[in-house]
Amino acid sequence: MSKITTELLLERAVPRSTRLRKIETLNLSKLQLKTGDLDPRLFSRLRHLQKLDLSDNLLDKFPNSLTLPDLRVLNCNNNKLEDVTALKQFPLLEELTYENNVYLTLNDDYKVMFLLQNLRLLNGKDITKLANHVRRVNSRKLTSKVTAHWEKFFRDQLPEKYTAEQVKSIKKKFLQSVQTNVVYGPSSLSEFTRWRVKMIAEEFLAYSLGLELNSDTEPEEKMDENEEESTESPREAAEDVAQVVHIYDPLLTTGAVTVTPSKRKRNHSKSSPGNKRSKSKASTEEEAEDVSAEPLHFLQCHSKGNSREDFKTQLWSCVFEPVLDSGARKDPIVSSSRTVATCGGESVCLIDCETGTVLKKYKVATEEFFSVAWTTLTMVISDSRKKAHNILAAAGRRGIVKLIHVAADFCYGEIKAHKKPIATVCFSPTQETHLFTASYDKRIALWDIGIPDCDYNFKASQLLVLETASIPLRIALVPTCPEQYLLAGCEDGCFAWNIKLDKGQKSRPFEAIFQFPDDESMTTSHRVDGLAFLNDDVVVSKSSKPGCIYLWSWSRSFDAKGKGCQRTMSAVILAELEWSTTDMSYLTLSTCPAKEYVFCGDEKGSVWMYNLSSYTTAWGSAKGKRSERRISPTQILKWPELRVNGEQPPEILVNNVVADPAFTYLVVLTSVNITAIWKKS
Fold it and tell me: Which stretches does UniProt call biased (Acidic residues) (predicted)?
């Protein structure tokens, strides 16, 4: 019979408690406890336990499912522990002591530093800097060595098409060889190095060949009253690789696993994308007809709880990462990157568009992310040197902005910006610390997020609040004066604000509302769920009126010399784009200014593309007249007819579609938890 009972736990609580779920500190030292005495079913009721003392007992290991989601401090001194890897089940652990466990070595210290991302104190010593080195530098070096070992000795051994038996054989040989031959660091850490090398090698195979990981991770527990958040390094992202789908057409594959492209038929009006998992990559090729873009990858990497059957999570926002050394704010073409941040459900992912690899993944179990935005901050690093780093802001249903230092795999802070959900965020192109957040509380706030120091201390402050008449859905800064005017598409119209900070008023009403054609008259009352600038002057906006995308002139519509607030102005329409006749809202649009393209998805999984380069010169003229006819799309990219395991998903909505600045890649976000990546031919 177990030595631990409910009564004992209540008695040993500090202070004594009447309910298990209220216990935050628990002393179970000097009870001669063995591993079998730690009953997971009983411990699972300690949902708010933060400090646990198990010192002076007889424990040789930890059970894998103690379910202590809020544990921060753990004392295991004077036991008989032989292994520490089970401690990874306590991701919030900050302080850990296990002195006088004779079987534990320096290698175990390095293992817990790697596994516990929040660990600060180990056996009474501050290990923050060393742990960062282990997690970042050590992992990077070993990953490079493992990759080089594969390329040199094993890559050519794998045929273009390979069977399951060939996969099993080469995997076994590679894992044995890489653990024997990859050496790094002092010999005293050889056990840790072999442990990490095996882990990295398995992840490498999973990424490169679509092979399953030998993961001993426990099923994710449902969070209750607690927020679980984690910034995933390539190691952790690889543990989720089974949830990253490269959808393909199984009707065209053989019994062998294949990574060769599969053909698709030309698409018809009805799309039928696949919805089940597969490890093989999808690639399609056109038949006789020329196309300007081809589907490259189909990924499912935002699943709730990493569920294999999640085809309900909506994907909302994506934005390409700026290139640090290219002068991103000067030349959008040079600054083009193939890494894109996407968000939806509980996670934010960074994806390499060329390979389809999920590079990093960040999760908050109680969040639903709606928007992401990049900025580049010049931060002080060691020895007082300064270096530019990309920072990603992510926000959503909880009204909180998460700030993520991507290169360090670290969410260093948050801003509690609004009490209601945040619909969209964007950074100023001229003030890198200035972030706009548009919320369901009918406010748009301007924040200075500050610059974190070398210890990630930062101070955020609110600079401005813009009052809206209805919920803001999309925001855009006017390119010619991004420090003076902001445009917003809202549930009940399109509005403009003066955002100049030298004005004394911190809370401001809108300065103008724009009228648009409505049958035979003009109206201000309509939902604007798509908004972007095509160039310095031409605005593209999409309204709730079926099939209605307008192009209009900012300079000819907005009277900057007028006085007073809440003025009504008529949008000077330049053209109207032909689009789907659906009345479905929130299928937003985007632009590629450098290539003069507009993109918008529809309710059938298709992407409508408009090359407007032949129109913009005429529109730029002061006498430029409205195009009489609707402008037809240059091309409509139909959703490929893909099947997986013989099944098709329900109707696919394209919530968002974004191109990189050079229009090399096109990222399509859908309503069925599938990210599609197209590449321009």
Answer: 215-231
